[in-house]
Amino acid sequence: MPELNDPAIYQTVLDALETGVYIVDPNRRIRFWNEGAEKITGYLRQDVVGHFLRDHLLATSDGAGDLDSDPDDPINIAFRDGKSSVMSVSILHKEGYRLPITLRTNPIRNSRGAVIGAAESFDKVTPFLDSTRRHSGLADFGCLDVLTGVAAQGFMDTQIRENLITFSEHHIPFGILLLQIDELDQHKIKRGPGVVSTILRIIAQSLENCLRPTDVLGCWGKYQFLAILTDCKETEVPLVAERARRIIGRSEIEWWGDKFSVTSPVGGAGCRMGDNVDSLIARADASLQESIAKGGNRVTVLH
Description:
Blueprint lengths: L6 H10 L3 E5 L5 E4 L1 H7 L3 H4 L25 H8 L3 E8 L5 E12 L5 E10 L6 H10 L12 H18 L3 E7 L3 H8 L2 H17 L5 E4 L4 E7 L6 H13 L3 E3 L2 E3 L5 E5 L6 H17 L5 E3 L2
Helix pairs in contact: 8-9
């Protein structure tokens, strides 16, 4: 059918996909941004089209180096080698929290085979249990912390006890992390008390998105988060803790036009035979206090 030769038809289909799709030119300037990209990232096309990619959101979660000069960056690979690639990365949502995605990059060639652009498509990484459904269930039973939007401390206490029973009976290992925000009182003094809830909500969303799908995140104490790392050996606890620390540091808080980031000391502990809730929490808290004493923004896991 001649109508199917009309390029506008294919652009309409591409634009309507739930998958995020965008196209950049050799200068990494964004030339196309579809509805799927708008829904996933929160950025409307008028926010990004015509701007350079580095001015916005797509970057690997470790934040190492300058993407424009990073030889392992997928767009650089597309332009330099003409190769496609697939990566698991995190992006910065417009609201400031980190969001894990699967990113696919493909070079765009002209009729002579020269690479003239790059197309990247991406989808959210969906946990085993969608957080919206999980939060709905917690809210129904009064187990959701209203301030942060994650599980309340009482629910987390129950979850630790259940994991201790599973560990005792079936020897399935698990660990816990205690996290808090460096210099939260200083942020409160500088920007006002209302900023605290904004910081905590954004960090909670980042952690919940980027921790492992089987982990459980909730509140513990005043302005603290606790993560239960299910099926996690003691030797693996520091690795998950370091990932959480990096994710917090790469989130972005916007407060009355001011954008800033925060850091976090993290304390971890792996469950051992004979542990109870108090002993496990005490070990994680001692680790957290050591991270704080050493200046914050670091991970400590005491054995």
